[in-house]
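Could you help me review a protein record that somebody else here produced? This is what I was given.
***
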Amino acid sequence: MAQPKQERARATRQRVLCAAGEVFAEYGYHGASVGQIMDRSHVTKGALYFHFASKEEMAAGVLARLQEPDITEIPAGPVRLQTLITLINGYADPPLTDPVLRGALRLIGEPEFEGSAGQERLHLTITGLLTDAAHAGELLSHVAPTDTAELITTVLAGLRRFAPEPKAGDAAISRIAVMWRHLLPSIAIPALIPALDLQRRPPGTTDSDDQSAKASLSSPSPPPGGTN
């Protein structure tokens, strides 16, 4: 009889974490309230506080999602920079089916969580991919992978913090594509750039299989107002 009770407790805890992820993603840490999370999770006040004594503990539980192994695991392709772009797009627009991840990525863009384990893991992953790209001859000789990773991490954190609409996935990818259009000519060998798909997302994420909206440096998005 103990096992079903434990399963119910785990399910309740996960429901609270999912609700917290949604609320943090939409309102940020300071804008979120325990009451909002309780209402969204449809649990009683006693059940919520049984698992989490405070909003801080809920934030810690949400951030723990970034330590799970699947976060940085995407199929490695022959072009390391494409793997990096795909990974970053997954961070910029995590799937709506993973509200805990969406909340965690919003939190690491806020000053209170600067330098968190999740943010550090992301930085190390980006540094590793850039180092692999350099060894594969994809980067210009002057590029320092650690410095470039710091720049990308900072831009991504700013996007998660200041994006006007947390659920506007295409808008998030478009903003990241702007970063790539400015950054890639400074770090990548010219012959590689036209082949990079700036909107490719990891398998299983929003629109990951939609190839109708590809963007590359050789075919930039039209300016506001459309084309002639």
Q: What stands out?
A: Residues 206-228 have pLDDT under 50 and may be disordered. The CA atoms of residues 12 and 43 lie 7 Å apart. The radius of gyration is 19 Å. The first helix runs from residue 2 to 31.
